[in-house]
Amino acid sequence: MARINEHPILTPSSEATFPLTFQGQVIRALPGEMLSSALFAAGFRTFGKHPKDGSPQGIFCANGQCSQCMVLADGIPVKACMTPAQPGMRIEPLTELPSLPDRQTLPPTGEIETLEVEVLIIGGGPAGLSAALELAEHGMDVLLIDDKDRLGGKLVLQTHRFFGSINAVHAGTRGIDIGVRLASDVSEKPTVRTWLNSTALAVFSDGIVGVLRDDAYVRIRPQMLLAATGAREKALVFPGNTLPGVYGAGAFQTLVNRDLVKAADRLFIVGGGNVGLIAGYHALQAGIDVVGLVEALPQCGGYKVHRDKLARMGVPIYTSHTVLSANGAEAVESVTISQIDEGFRPVEGTERTYACDTVLIAVGLDPVDEFTEAANRFGVPVYTAGDADEIAEASAAIFSGKITGRQIALDMKRTSAPIPEDWARTTAILKSHPGKTIDRTAPTIQTTEDSANRTFRERETPRNDNARSDGELGASPTPDEPSSNGFAFPVFHCTQEIPCNPCTSVCPQGLIHIDEADIRNVPDYIADQVGKACIGCTKCVSICPGLAITLVDTRENVEMANVTIPFEFGDSALEPGQMALAMDVNGDLLGEFWVARVTAMPSNDRTVLVVVEAPRDKAARIAGLRVQEPWVGEPLPDVVRPLEDEDIVCRCERITAGEIRALIQSGMRDINEIKTVTRTGMGACGGKTCQTLIARLFRECGVPEEAVTKNVPRPLFVEVALGTLAGASANPQDSDENVNPTDPHSLDGKVQA
Q1: Distance CA 283, CA 4 (A)
Q2: To 10 degrees, what angle do helices 671-678 and 657-665 make?
Q3: Pairing mode, if any, of strands 524-525 and 560-567?
Q4: Residue 601 and residue 361: Cα distance in Å, rounded?
């Protein structure tokens, strides 16, 4: 592994690194960098061995939700993904459970602060930030806490432009920039306080929310609690699913896009929703080979423009396929997939194995809802917003937070302004799943008179100097009589109904139309209706979030069109005079064409425009350029067969699906009983990753949901040193002189809850 020193969207850090050690070997970290990223940058993916069976452990979520990445930092067990590296820190693998101290020498305790606020917001992502802004508009006292070192949540990881409404949720702007904008807006609100590096631990029966702020324990008593806690990634059960190198899309994006660490050389993706498709694109931008993507359904569930973008860049996509196993001894070395039938059963004889070092799991999200459930149980007034309420796109979370903020202000009598009716309609549109696909077969330039295939629902228009003075359009060329003057027109390769309208805002001629009442409609090119022609400014090409608009221009040469293509791999990847491989919307090769121009303009926000010369009959079919060679996705000659019934369900305690299935078949219906017998759910993560998998096993065994007694959650949702809850100082200088913070036998009070 290595650091990413060049990126088409992000700017690598110029700060100096500092030394620390892992197993006695000197590695280097950047200021503020988490241990997991420093270890990956140094080439380490295996962080330790599980105490039960010696299995290698790495990362999975990189979000503090599991315990896969646990290491010893100066003798203290910590999550590598949530612990900043410090100069001189000594990191060791966690190979066995730390011993308890022989005697109790407690550090000094102090007074625990109790703070009262009107509204406590847990989570500084898109929903939490938007809610804080709305609450501030009504002068409310707000405390917003987040467990990371910066605000923005998952926006920090999103380098692509956002879909949705350009007016409501900044569509057409990159997620990383939306995060900065929202955080900046919140910082200017005098009634909003923000605490970073602050983890909500629990909601207690007396209405107190326990918060670990840096190393100090603080009690918050809110009049209203807003859980904007986001979601955690679902795990997937298959042989080898806990090998280092098998991890979630969020972890991958954290390493690659937040910390600029090249987290893989050869990546294989499981899951064709937006998360998996976007992660594949981010991998290509980081210089990582994407070997392939499997999706169990007959079609990818994410936006078609995301799927098409990957396909035309050279990534093989296998629908109606599943992963059979991740293979390797100490880390992922390959992955085996297979076609599945209508009952989602592997089809014998279709198995293929691909060499890779990383398997990215993107099979859905579960809301982080434990705070909401606890608040409801104890009668604490609580609202939820964003993914904690309903899994949807980040654009929907932004608007969800705004509505929830207004509702809280109404309920607390801080405003009488009702929630506008159009807000609910906008929210429903932003949360909607992809709609139907419109048949928009790309035309050849010769069919401009009647656009028989109705690609644009109108005819292409001549350039301005061919328009009549009375405002009527000049005569369009017919299939038999090509225009000698030529013309320019945009080609929309977006054919699926999704919420998106940035292209309508930038056309200086007003030639692109999407019904504002429902921005899920595909765009129309309405030149014949407004009496104007395309001037070839390419603004629509550069702003499209799906890179799904190209511009065909025959004004210089009616026989060889200039095709402008959006390209987000830097302005040095292609140069004029080179040959580029042009692909259609489905990822099929159209040919190799000469690059005439490469334009990188600040106003295009890091989207490079590549102009290729193409024959008339192919120009409008060009949707993108291939960036990855076909051989990257070739399978290995021999298939690696999966193991049988040894899939790990509980990562923390290494409990297999076979063990749990046997108990279910013996008659157990209480998950707490299964926990007692097997220790499933008793590990460091507190059952965050295994509960949905256990529920799936019950379903597979034919046990209805209402017959199952659910797991009783821990009162504390995050691990914390017991001494912290007593107000003990975490600073060794404030502790008893007999306490050595690097000695695990004298870590009095540092037992993990």
Answers
A1: 11
A2: 130
A3: unpaired
A4: 36
* Residue that has been written with the tokens 């909607």 in this structure: 432
Between the alpha carbon of residue 437 and those of residues 399, 548, 598, the distances in Å are 26, 14, 32
Domain of 695? 648-707
What pTM value is reported for the model?
0.85
Closest to 564 in 3D by CA, of 582, 579, 545, 546: 582
Highest mean pLDDT (candidates 64-78, 308-322, 640-654): 308-322
User: Could you report the per-residue pLDDT of 188-200, keeping only the tens digit for each?
Assistant: 999 999 999 999 9
Number of domains in the chain: 5
CA distances from 568 to 229, 552, 600, 606, 625 (A): 31, 19, 10, 7, 11
CATH number at residue 203: 3.50.50.60
- Cα angle 29, 35, 36; round to 5: 115
What is the bridge-based pairing of β-strands 231-233 and 365-367? Answer: antiparallel
Last residue of one domain, picked from the residues 61, 94, 109? 109
Are 270 and 174 spatial neighbours (Cβ–Cβ below 8 Å)?
A: no
The 10 Å Cβ neighbour count of residue 590 is: 18
- Which two tokens mark 747? 């870590």
**In 93-143, alpha helices (H):** 126-137
509 and 559 Cβ atoms separated by less than 8 Å: no
The owner of tokens 């010369």 is: 613
Question: How far apart, in whole angstroms, are the C-alpha atoms of residue 237 and residue 648?
Answer: 6
Task: Indicate whether 244 and 350 sit together in one domain.
Answer: yes
The C-alpha atoms of residue 456 and residue 441 are separated, in whole angstroms, by: 10
Kindly state whether residues 258 and 220 are assigned to the same domain. Answer: no
In the numeric block, the tokens 């105490």 are attached to: 51
Count, residues in the chain: 753
Pair (496, 616) in one structural domain: yes
Residue tagged 């140094």 (tokens): 42
* Measured CA distances, 689 to 190, 244, 649, 674, 695 (Å): 39, 16, 8, 16, 11
Together in a domain, 301 and 372 = no
In a domain? residue 313 = yes
510 and 391 belong to one structural domain: no
- Output the six-digit token pair for 70: 């646990």
Token reading at 236: 């997937």
pLDDT at 614 over 60: yes
57 shares its domain with 161: no
**Within-domain flag for 743:** no
Residues 495-515: tens digit of each pLDDT: 999 999 999 999 999 999 998
Residues 379, 360: Cα–Cα separation, whole Å: 40
Per DSSP bridges, beta strands 317-319 and 589-599 are unpaired
CB 145 within 8 A of CB 200: yes
Angle between helix 394-411 and helix 175-187 axes, rounded to 10 deg: 20
Task: Work out the angle at residue 386's Cα, subtended by the Cα atoms of residues 382 and 389, and round it to the nearest 5 degrees.
Answer: 55
Which residues make Cβ contacts (< 8 Å) with residue 462, sequence separation at least 6?
473, 474, 475, 476, 477, 483, 485, 487, 533
Q: How confident is the model at residue 517 (pLDDT cuts 50, 70, 90)?
A: confident
Residues 6+ apart with CB under 8 A from 651: 60, 66, 67, 68, 235, 242, 683, 685, 689, 690
Confidence of residue 700 (pLDDT cuts 50, 70, 90): confident
